[in-house]
Amino acid sequence: MIAAIAGDMIGSVHERANIKRTNFTLFKSHSRFTDDSVMTLAVAECLLRGREYGPTMREFGRRYPDRGYGGMFRKWLADPAMGPYQSFGNGSAMRVSPIGFAMRTLDDVESEARRSALPTHDHPEGIKGAQALAVAVFLARKGKDKRAIRDAIEARYGYDLHRRVDKIRPGYKFDVTCQGSVPEAIIAFLDSDDVESAIRLAISLGGDADTLASMAGAVAQAFYKEVPAAIVAEVERRLTPELWALTQEFCERYDVAW
Questions:
Q1: What is the pLDDT, as a whole number, of residue 172?
Q2: DSSP 51
Q3: What's the maximum distance between 2 C-alpha atoms anywhere in the chain?
């Protein structure tokens, strides 16, 4: 989960930039956590405290405004009476990684990922994207190799993961849909050598850089079970003390290696 937050921070300055390369400075002076991290930690809060997803997401979103929320999500945050809005955007997947770290069975991962998506992203593709990313984290955490992770995600969700970042990169454009970003984020992990390279590869695709890197980082941390100390230090420095304490508590409760 720390790598998901790191990916968000590192990618925050590259969104829509289409840098199309991996050799960039990881953290810049204006790198910051965005809605990806806020909502990821809202999901973590729900798992830790047994809280409902919708009210908790609204609470966290209002506590941390101006973090890059999408237009419909901003309306949802502001209107307690507003229900889900048939979104298939990648917001359901960007926030789901704590579920992959916390659940004990594959069935639990899928059902809980669905629950976390439903308050906003009740379109089938929005639900599927959340489930696929959470399952990838779960399988990586359980020690499955990359081929097994790839084959399981393809079989369960129909995503084409038999592609490479270097082939996707030239023609890839900004895409905030689950179906246009979740597979690519998982491929960035599959092509990686460690957490840092997963984040760099995801950002190098161009487009929705913070979300791509957050999703790829989450799977990479579950798989490699190590986040570079320098990256952890930057995450701690750039989060609020409250959010860092929540991150630590979640990692300790669910034995998330970092």
A1: 96
A2: -
A3: 46
Give yes or no for a contact between 246 and 39, defined as CB atoms under 8 angstroms apart. no
Q: What value does the mean pLDDT take over residues 5-10?
A: 98
Element (H, E) at 48: helix 35-49
Task: Give dist(CA 235, CA 7) in Å, integer.
Answer: 10
CB of 9 within 8 A of CB of 238? Answer: yes
Return the exposure string of 85-96: e unless at least 16 CB atoms fall within 10 Å of the residue's CB, then b.
Answer: bebbbbbbbbbb
Question: Residue 147: which residues within 8 A CB-CB, separation 6 or more?
Answer: none
Domains in the chain (CATH in brackets) are 2-253 (1.10.4080.10)
227-258 confidence digits (pLDDT tens): 999 999 999 999 999 999 999 999 999 999 98
Cα separation, 137 vs 108, in Å, equals 13
Residues in the chain: 258
CA atoms within 13 A on the CB side of 146: 13
Q: What is the average pLDDT across 139-162?
A: 98
Buried b (16+ CB within 10 A) or exposed e, 214-234: bbbbbbbbbbbeebeeebbeb
